[in-house]
Input
Amino acid sequence: MKQSEHIAHILKTLPEQSGVYRYYNDEGTVIYVGKAKNLKRRVSSYFNKEHHHRKLQALIANIADIQYTVVDTENDALLLENNLIKQYQPKYNILLKDDKTYPWLCITNEPFPRLFPTRRKTDPKSKYFGPYSSVKALHSLLDTLAELFPLRSCKMKLTQEAISNHKYKPCLDYHIKKCMAPCVAYQSAEDYQANIRQVEQILKGNTTFVINELKEKMMAYAADMNFEKAQEVKEKIMLLQTYQSKSIVLSETLHNVEVYAIVGDVEAAYICYFNVVNGAIVSTQTLMVKQALDESLEDLLLYAIVDIRNNAVNPSKEIIVPFALDFELADVKVVVPKSGEKYKLLKFAMHNAANYMNEKQRQKELSNPELHRIQLLETMQKDMQLPKPPAYIECFDNSNIQGQFPVSSMVCFRNGRPSKSEYRIYNVKTVDKPDDFTTMAEVLTRRYSRLLKEEKPLPDLIVVDGGKGQVSAAYQVLQQLGLENTIPLLGIAKRLEEIYRPNDPIPLFIDKKSETQRIIQHLRDEAHRFGITHHRNKRDKDLIKTELTNIQGIGEQIAAKLLSTFRSVSVIKNASLEDLEQVIGKSKALSVYNYYHAVASKRDEAIER
Output
């Protein structure tokens, strides 16, 4: 039976239930694992639709067999998918990457457990707490715990039989009060386990609970007149309160929540995770999720949430996310806040995720500038729905004051960066009143008529400063030149930073914090800055020349010579007759001198009256 026939038979018999499906290649290797609310609808979509993503096309071409598992709930599908991806490591599945190997704190499964940092979770019977994004913070926590509850650091097998047979002797840790020597029965197993339970509570973030327990213990010692022991416990309480005050305290009303924030670029998503207990962040983590088949941010975030919660010691019953999830999580309240303290916490996490993405992008740019350039242009192409990456962009902006001194600026970006040698200024010739549309039409006609005549390369994208009106005016010019299907055109409106396309009243949605939006805004701002600078220069030059050329016998050449020598009109006004004569001769110097002194004399007469 041919592959297509075999797959067609499977598709006809797929159930319309929740489940997990697995794709196999000719060699019987699992190449993709996916989940679905409706197996028949989801799996059939791979074969009934036209796909443009190259990796997705490659996946479908390599599918030789399909197997599936029906589950009762969406949550079961999420968990099974996560487990199967870890088991098979399929070629076409997304990869969850921890940028750093974050350390964990491990409490071993022994009669007298040990506490130590580790970067590998090797023993399934031990308890792991974390991960900790800061090694410094982890060691600070370990030092605090060592002062509060001295635990053994040795690797000896402390069995009751070995202790009873006096197999061990107290080590240096006992003598320097870093251990209470359970190896020689100086500390009972019950007392040691009580300390371990309190350490676990602190690692879970329940610091207040431990403080309250210690306070009760302190009061009991005091009631028994055992003030020395009471003082020891009091010192532990003070130490624990000091540690608690160093935590990132957010709110007294936020208890036991998890926060997940996500941002993405063309090839990966970057996730920031906070674990909040009793109003304080007790654990943070940043992750990168590599895209495999053009997955959405929703898919990537859901995958990360399931993976992180599977590794959590005590997962929360409430999670805060930036958008609604398509799949339901069993016994979990999902919150998408719009205001209040939870929204502030989400914004904090989003800021951290964005910083993490920027850091990774800078690292890629430094290590491989060419790869970064290619990825940036591919992202812009995808965001702006362009036929090819916009390596060469031109942007236009108009400047005038009530129609006077009109200029239009054109700036050029190559590979996402300004190419200042290609900036141009156009003195508008056909417009003598404020008319953005006509100005735009004139300048674009001049620019692209010349490029066509000289057979020079055309840009990959034109951007105009303005909304639907400016875009329409620019598009008419491209139509007249026969370029409407050759050069893509966009406009960026000032008020809401919206991106418009020709013949489309609905603005193009682009993430306001994305690299694409940043570059488009940079283009617009650079065009505005360049145009305003030259507009002011032109205006000032014309105003100054007009004032000097009002003097009888002074033309533009003499005015320019005066300005070149004296630098400003105010200096010319105050110059002596001798200084003026040295520059423009006696007769013209006398005209300038008399003009300004006559003006000053009339002003003084007016003041006296």
The mean pLDDT is 81. The chain is about 50% helix and 20% strand.
